[in-house]
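Researcher: Sequence recovery benchmark, item below. Answer with residues only.
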């Protein structure tokens, strides 16, 4: 198995774990996240990434949950972000669990395909990076999303919020993979 094939397999395994958790949460809460407005979703991503950074610096968790579950949450909230960009927010839960899972699968597949293209071009550079760099890049992407939201989308050269969500997902998957090795 080549290094690229190994990455694809590891990525798919990490995404399957995230999907299973997402599906269980849908069972418990339905698609309650449909109510999140874009800024609230951005803040949710921010607190997850900020917690990772805090744990990396302090080297201790007083809550008992580590860094890996927060990367999983970033992946799932990143996908929620893509769904919300597509559908807009709602005042009530307006999709079934099956519809939510179909949308999840669509965006998870798009993230995988983007990772494959970028990983080809960057030649597995992520494997030589520190996990803390993924965290900092994710925080940077979140800051960019905040700026785009503040500009109400009127950017000059930005790839847009969706591209930033995709990058957050992919960096978080790399974090899950590295923390699993």
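Model:
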């Amino acid at each position: 198995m080549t290094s690229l094939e190994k990455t694809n397999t590891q990525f798919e395994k990490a995404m399957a774990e995230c999907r299973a958790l997402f599906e269980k949460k849908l069972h418990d809460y339905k698609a309650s996240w449909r109510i999140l407005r874009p800024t609230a979703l951005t803040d949710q991503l921010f607190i997850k990434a900020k917690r990772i950074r805090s744990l990396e610096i302090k080297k201790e968790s007083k809550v008992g949950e580590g860094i890996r579950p927060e990367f999983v949450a970033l992946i799932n909230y990143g996908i929620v972000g893509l769904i919300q960009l597509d559908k807009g927010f709602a005042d009530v839960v307006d999709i079934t669990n099956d519809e939510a899972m179909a949308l999840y699968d669509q965006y998870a597949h798009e993230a995988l395909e983007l990772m494959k293209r970028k990983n080809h071009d960057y030649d597995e550079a992520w494997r030589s990076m520190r996990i803390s760099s993924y965290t900092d890049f994710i925080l940077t992407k979140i800051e960019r999303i905040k700026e785009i939201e503040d500009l109400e989308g009127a950017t000059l050269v930005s790839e847009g919020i969706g591209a930033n969500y995709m990058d957050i997902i992919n960096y978080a998957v790399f974090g899950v993979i590295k923390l699993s090795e």
